[in-house]
Design brief:
The structure is a homodimer.
Chain A lengths: L7 H20 L10 H8 L13 H25 L4 H18 L1 H10 L5 H24 L8 H53 L9 H10 L17
The structure holds a DNA duplex.
DNA sequence: AAGTTGAGAGGACAGTTGTTCACTGACTTC
DNA sequence: GAAGTCAGTGAACAACTGTCCTCTCAACTT
């Protein structure tokens, strides 16, 4: 048993590594990553500043690790939402309930992602963007299987998924703010708004294709270029060469 | 002329104050407010660190001033969008064009708002939230005058306005990222997506009321409670007492 | 013309920061 | 059981931070 990669040694290392992550996450509740200090983190853990380097090159690297931790558990969440095959209305309620639960159980993670998504550390921004991208891809795949998506172009399903994901992240962040600054009343207001907005989006979705994609001829022209080609029918039309 | 409040004196003061704001805004392109240093700012301007205190108590106060500067000009922008009475499709194109222009002309302001909206400085977060709230109110007032909004409840117009505003802010931030990290192609992708998402929302808006507000009886019950009361019809119903 | 004001300078203060280096000693391997 | 690995230590480093105090001197007031 003691032959393969070390046992107690690596376990203890992982333990302090996790302690560093936890301490950082705690400190990040009231500041942003780019202002967080290395010593500040090690002080909370109760370890020498130099010990930090055994685990991360710098705080940016720790930040990226935090992203994985925060958004990894999120993939579990989306499965929960997409698993059930409810009607549109119940699906919205379930979705929001899951978001509420997630915010309640992982407030620091939610705050971290919301804050650092546009934060001052490039590597972390990219890590979050990448993770949310994977997230959107999952949602898109699930949306595609639903009857409402019949006849939809893949890029359109994807743009809808991205709209949903962004809305959920935003709602989670707002929910968090409301929870600790506005009280029960503010929370209810956020929930109410999120529900209605999702309802409206879902409504737009159901009527997409009827008249949403402009005229038929334009829709055809677009079908060949796609999202990466040009910006479609508009006042400021781009050349199709791209 | 020299009788009333000072002339040259106050003018010079305003000048260095503006220099401090500009310097801070520049430095904030690559870090967040909570990591910005007082000395860092004064060094760029070329004044003594202590001079800072003549204008702001601390960097948080400077941040709030930056919010006003950044979001003040934004109100002009919304007037431009809402002024024209185009058809829905052209309105979307015009809107996005205005956003693109704004991002091109005030990139640092856009980045600042996007970053500090969920940033680590409470006072600044609140300032941004307040300003975006005023902004949403303006949009709501404009939406209300449009024929499509006939029969809409005020809270629903407001929630739509907030959806639009959030989408525009997000789009501006994404546009900025794309512009300086992804090249022309990435910018076009963002524009394409934003256009489609607005289109879908606008579509949902046109069909709101047909079936969007659940059943009639429930819609009635909601009409009395409103957004601040409780969360309306859902699986996890709240008591009406609050 | 004399007196007041206040923006900014400059020095000094105690703390804090990230990073380096040689070190210890419990665990792992042979 | 000897040898080696390596997570964590502790001291020292130069650089930096925000804030305090006293000072100057141009612009203003009367």
């Amino acid at each position: 048993m003691s032959h393969s990669v070390g046992g107690v040694r690596q376990a203890q290392k992982q333990k302090t590594r996790q302690a560093l992550l936890d301490a950082a996450l705690g400190l990040l509740e009231e500041q942003s990553l780019s202002s967080l200090g290395l010593r500040e983190v090690t002080r909370v853990v109760g370890v020498a500043p130099t010990a930090f380097y055994r685990h991360f090159r710098d705080l940016g690297e720790l930040g990226v690790a935090l992203v994985e931790e925060a958004l990894g558990s999120l993939h579990v969440m989306v499965r929960a939402i997409l698993a059930e095959q409810d009607a549109a209305e119940e699906r919205i309620d379930r979705t929001i309930a899951v978001v509420e639960r997630h915010v309640r159980e992982h407030p620091a993670h939610v705050r971290f992602v919301a804050r650092e998504r546009r934060g001052g550390v490039r590597a972390v921004r990219h890590a979050i963007a990448g993770e949310l991208d994977r997230f959107a891809a999952e949602v898109a795949a699930a949306l595609k299987t639903q009857p409402v998506s019949a006849g939809w172009r893949d890029e359109d399903v994807r743009m809808l998924a991205e709209l949903y994901v962004d809305r959920l992240v935003t709602t989670a962040a707002e929910l968090l703010d409301a929870r600790e600054e506005g009280g029960e009343e503010a929370v209810e207001r956020v929930v109410w708004r999120a529900r209605r907005q999702l309802r409206l989006i879902s409504l737009g979705r159901r009527h997409w294709g009827e008249e949403g994609q402009a005229s038929a001829s334009v829709a055809e022209a677009e079908a060949e270029s796609g999202p990466s080609g040009l910006s479609g029918p508009s006042g400021s039309a781009e050349p199709s060469g791209g």
